[in-house]
């Protein structure tokens, strides 16, 4: 996009906006919608795209619209050995690389693949690996305007908007050393790339607050080192972490449309970072370490795929990442005990994962960060699906990238691993009333040829059409053959109690089932069950949310969650169930008792204090890496999504808000 052309368009737009009274926000939605529908793949609330279980990809899937394709190598099975494995070393290392079967060894130190990198160096002797104090930033020096559509202000530049957040100082970004090596043989074949990451000094020198965080967790801290070709993340043509050429085109189309818009509206338009599917997956080498004050332990080191994860947060300065294990990259799964104590429905340990998520914190990325984690962990005894998670520090190409939440991923393999059902039989729907015409989409599973998106929901939708209520026990029993009523009950107990406002229930709801019925597995009975995710808006405004009647005031329908005129299948399940006196009595009784049980002020406070002790020691380094986005004090004591907000909410919710909800619901069903 040419600067003069954009400048002229922006000037004209500003004049039009001024004549209209200066309020451009009212038109932002229509403008962004035009851009979205014309040039971006639809975005759902989970950020999920094509199935990770499918390793084979067609030519179309492996190539993006800008011509990106995975590099092909004449690969042999030989190896390059390192004289020292990756991890923490107190003193500098003299690293020797050896080709097992001869050949010439090449290596890189910038994270790029040595088989094809222009920066690779021929190995001619031991490599000195030392502290990197004073080294210049590389990936951390990328212009923030190229990455983020958040924190933006109007700017007469080639991009139209400028990010107000500056890149961090060199000294604010901790650095480690990534060595990637390969060997080329005389016949032209090449080994795979072998990678190791080295941290010279102590763990505390690299990760501020490590000791305090580990002490609070009573275990080690997860540290992930990602090595990737620079252009795969930051190229305007095919980089997945930037706005890129797609954003430039979308912004130009938005301006041409003549509709008013503001910086916030541009977060919704098409960009490289919100493209989906295998074509927007990039190869990466991932090393997982367990760090403690005593040293480090490597638990995973493998090539895998990476995509941007999330929905609205994709436009943020720090982005979520989803990692994909595939045979294509070498290993079909991540094999390690990543989440301590994680077990399946049969009580067996889960130490194998097809996909993993590095969540930046969603809407709370620059505040407490663990808001969703807090409510997920408090809901683990509920009869609905939750995810395991833990704090994690990420390095990208040897540079500190940020504090993340490492968590499980809701893929079809998740249900196979947890419930023993076949991943090929799993059906998942997820809702997004803003982005999707139906209000939901099929997220896992295959539609029979020629069938509508709501195909698997149809028996449930037909039931709603043929029944006005579940007041008759026979109708309730028939409904219970379609839906696990305990799962629905516990799901709405959680969402209502925490007041997960704004996005939910229009968005961020999900239901799953098996396509066929298996009498030998209770979870394979073909009934719909509910999944909890994106809970960070729960109690996010503090004491102001305490008294909210979430059932009545869900910003969705006049009668709230009891409104049976909705087309939201999840809400309809609850609304219908509440017409049954037995269910309703049980639900309200449990809602009140929840305040004395798992959601008691004492238990919630204990968990909140525990998570705060784990995450907060790591805040200072994170906010130094992202200057101007917040601070430790704001994350702990601020007026929005802070630890204090959650604490204020849980201190009164059980005694003040919940009784109001119970009373109101009872009044709605008085004869």
Task: Record keyword descriptors for this entry.
about 675 residues; alpha+beta; Immunoglobulin-like; seven-stranded mixed β-barrel; five-stranded mixed β-sheet; 18 helices; globular; disordered N terminus
Describe the protein.
With about 675 residues, this protein is an alpha+beta fold. Among the domains are: about 70-135 and about 175-200, Immunoglobulin-like (Sandwich), CATH 2.60.40; about 420-670, no CATH class. The protein has 18 helices and 24 strands. The chain has a seven-stranded mixed β-barrel. Strands 2-11-10-5-6 form a five-stranded mixed beta sheet, with no helix packed on it. Strands 22-21-23-24 form a four-stranded antiparallel beta sheet. A hairpin with a 2-residue loop joins strand 13 (about 280-290) and strand 14. Helix 12 crosses helix 13 (about 570-575) and helix 12 (about 485-500) crosses helix 14. The longest helix has 26 residues, at about 645-670. It is globular. The N and C termini lie far apart (about 65 Å). Mean pLDDT is about 90; it is low at about 1-45 and about 50-65.
Side by side, the strands of the main sheet go 12-13-14-15-18-20-19
Q: How much strand content do the residues show?
A: 15-25%
Radius of gyration: 26 Å
Uncertain residue ranges? 1-47, 49-65
Question: Distance between termini?
Answer: 65 Å
For the residues shown, what is the average pLDDT? 89
- Percent of residues in helical segments? 25-40%
| Biggest sheet overview | 7 strands, mixed, barrel
Shape, per Cα inertia axes: globular
Q: Structural class, from helix and strand content?
A: alpha+beta
Helix count equals: 18
């Amino acid at each position: 996009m040419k600067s003069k052309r954009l400048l002229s368009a922006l000037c004209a737009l500003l004049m039009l906006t001024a004549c209209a009274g200066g309020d451009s926000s009212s038109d932002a939605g229509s403008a962004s919608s035009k851009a979205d529908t014309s040039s971006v793949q639809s975005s759902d609330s989970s950020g999920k795209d094509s199935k990770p279980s499918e390793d084979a990809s067609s030519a179309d899937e492996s190539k993006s619209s800008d011509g990106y394709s995975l590099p092909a190598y004449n690969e042999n099975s030989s190896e390059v050995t390192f004289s020292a494995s990756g991890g923490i070393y107190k003193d500098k290392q003299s690293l020797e690389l050896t080709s097992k079967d001869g050949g010439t060894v090449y290596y890189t130190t910038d994270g790029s693949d040595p088989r094809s990198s222009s920066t690779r160096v021929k190995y001619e002797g031991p490599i000195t690996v030392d502290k990197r104090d004073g080294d210049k930033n590389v990936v951390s020096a990328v212009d923030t305007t190229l990455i983020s559509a958040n924190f933006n202000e109007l700017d007469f530049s080639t991009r139209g908007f400028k990010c107000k957040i500056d890149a961090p100082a060199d000294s604010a970004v901790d650095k480690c050393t990534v060595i990637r090596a390969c060997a080329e043989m005389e016949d032209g074949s090449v080994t795979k790339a072998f990678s190791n990451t080295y941290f010279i000094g102590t763990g505390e020198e690299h990760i501020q607050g490590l000791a305090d965080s580990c002490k609070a967790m009573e275990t080690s801290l997860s540290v992930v080192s990602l090595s990737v070709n620079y252009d795969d993340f930051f190229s305007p043509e095919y980089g997945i972490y930037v706005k890129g050429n797609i954003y430039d085109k979308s912004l130009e189309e938005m301006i041409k449309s003549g509709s008013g818009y503001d910086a916030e509206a541009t977060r919704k338009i098409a960009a490289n970072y919100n493209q989906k599917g295998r074509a927007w997956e990039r190869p990466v080498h991932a090393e997982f370490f367990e760090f403690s004050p005593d040293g480090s332990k490597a638990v995973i080191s493998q090539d895998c795929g990476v995509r941007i994860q999330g929905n609205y947060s994709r436009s943020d300065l720090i982005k979520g990442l989803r990692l994909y294990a595939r045979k294509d990259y070498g290993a079909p799964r991540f094999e390690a005990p990543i989440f301590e104590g994680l077990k399946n429905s049969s009580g067996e340990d889960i130490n194998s994962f097809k996909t993993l998520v590095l969540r930046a914190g969603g809407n709370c990325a620059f505040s407490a960060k663990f808001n969703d984690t807090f409510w997920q962990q408090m809901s683990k005894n509920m009869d609905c699906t939750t995810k395991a998670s833990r704090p994690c520090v990420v390095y990208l190409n040897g540079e500190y990238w940020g504090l993340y939440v490492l968590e499980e991923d809701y893929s079809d393999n998740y249900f196979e691993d947890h419930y023993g059902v076949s991943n090929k039989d799993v059906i998942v729907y997820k809702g997004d009333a803003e982005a999707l015409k139906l209000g939901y989409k099929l997220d896992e599973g295959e539609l029979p040829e020629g069938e509508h998106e709501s195909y698997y929901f149809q028996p449930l939708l037909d039931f709603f059409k043929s029944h006005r209520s579940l007041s008759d026990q026979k109708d309730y029993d028939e409904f219970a053959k379609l839906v696990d009523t305990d799962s629905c009950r516990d799901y709405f107990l959680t969402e209502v109690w925490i007041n997960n406002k704004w996005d939910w229930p229009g968005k961020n709801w999900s239901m799953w089932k098996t396509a066929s019925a298996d009498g030998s597995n209770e979870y394979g009975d073909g009934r719909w069950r509910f999944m909890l995710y994106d809970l960070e808006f729960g109690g996010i405004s503090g004491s102001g949310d305490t008294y909210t009647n979430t059932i009545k005031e869900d910003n969705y329908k006049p009668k709230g969650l009891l409104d049976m005129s909705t087309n939201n299948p999840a809400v309809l399940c609850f609304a219908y169930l509440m017409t049954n006196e037995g269910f309703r009595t049980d639900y309200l009784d449990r809602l009140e008792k929840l305040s004395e049980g798992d959601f008691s002020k004492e238990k919630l406070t204990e968990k909140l204090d525990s998570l705060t002790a784990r995450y907060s020691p790591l805040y200072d380094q994170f906010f130094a890496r992202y200057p101007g986005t917040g601070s430790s004090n704001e994350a702990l004591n601020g007026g929005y999504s802070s630890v204090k907000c959650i604490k204020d909410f849980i201190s009164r919710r059980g005694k003040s808000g919940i009784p109001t909800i119970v009373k109101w619901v009872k009044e709605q069903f008085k004869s």
